[in-house]
Specification:
This protein has 261 residues and is an alpha/beta fold. 42% of the residues lie in helices and 15% in strands. It has one domain: Rossmann fold. α7 links the parallel β6 and β7. It binds adenosine-5'-triphosphate and magnesium ion. Adenosine-5'-triphosphate binds next to α1 and α9. It catalyses: ATP + H2O = ADP + phosphate + H(+).
């Protein structure tokens, strides 16, 4: 039975997508069978996987969500699961923004994504959901589907703001909708070693959450290689396996697994 992770942050640009993408390949390198789910209508993760025109993909997560909301039968997994270099993924497109609007009008529609992913859980060791930086109906669905939330914090962006509200929501979802939900921890991303800020924010995060939430030892350094690898639609393990960010994501993957025993 695979574990369902979700990368989350209530601010944009905290490296959720880059983390989902590189964590997927780092876990694969550790022998895990991984499915990455693009649950953001921006479809950035889908582009990372090399899909040039997400709008042209016939079955995306948006289509699956629509079918689920309408109580229609889902297509066979082979029709919507794509694969790149051994990592499977479910693409997204703008269709998901229509779903977002529709979900707001539906009652009791928090478990739509869960319904889709539970049917796939047995096929994978890890399923990772990449989310958008909002706390709307889509992310409630992601929280209702996930076992573990990985919170990405970008020290440059005062990303701690909004974190307490998000944690409150996690608590509510856990008690009302999904009792298996837990916070895996906080991952500091885009840490610029040349500035003192990363150190200061790390201390601030530690002081605030010590004993409450795990802060991963692995911190992802800022490097131009990340942007380049995204541009070329290659994970760091392919594009720049020697770079520090790649090593950090590999260590993070190990930490994540070790933590679960
Ligand atoms: N470690 C890093 N070093 C340098 N640049 C990075 C790093 N991590 C992410 N980036 C860059 O920061 C930008 C935002 O990253 P990403 O798209 O993963 O964030 P996000 O949290 O998914 O954003 P959104 O909220 O819009 O979905 C991208 O341009 C990405 O290439
Ligand atoms: Mg993103």
């Amino acid at each position: 039975m695979g574990k369902i992770y979700m990368t989350a942050c209530m601010k944009g640009g905290c490296a959720k997508t880059v983390t989902t993408y590189n964590l997927a390949y780092s876990l694969q390198k550790l022998g895990k069978k991984v499915l990455a789910v693009d649950f953001d209508s921006q479809a950035n993760l889908t582009t990372c996987f090399g899909v040039e025109d997400p709008a042209a993909v016939p079955v995306t997560i948006g289509h699956l969500m629509m079918a689920q909301i309408e109580d229609e039968e889902l297509p066979a997994a082979e029709e919507y699961i794509m694969s790149r270099n051994g990592v499977d993924f479910i693409p997204s497109s703008m269709v998901l923004s229509v779903v977002d609007a529709k979900l707001r009008l539906e009652m009791g529609a928090e478990k739509m994504l869960s319904g889709i992913l539970e049917s796939l859980r047995d096929r994978y060791d890890a399923i990772i959901i990449d989310t958008a930086p909002t706390l709307g109906a889509l992310n409630i669905n992601a929280l209702a589907a996930a076992d573990e939330v990985i919170i990405t914090v970008n020290p440059q962006l005062l990303a701690m703001m909004g974190l307490q509200d998000f944690l409150k929501t996690v608590k509510k979802i856990k008690s009302r909708i999904n009792d298996k939900l837990d916070v895996a921890g906080i991952l500091l991303t885009m840490c610029d070693a040349r500035t003192n800020l990363c150190k200061v924010i790390t201390e601030q995060v530690t002081d605030t959450f010590e004993g409450q939430i795990r802060i991963f030892d692995s911190k992802i350094p800022n490097t131009v290689k990340v942007g380049e690898s995204v541009y070329y639609s290659e994970p760091l393990l392919e594009y720049a396996p020697e770079c520090k960010a790649c090593e950090a994501y590999e260590n993070f993957a190990k930490e994540l697994i070790a933590y679960e025993g």
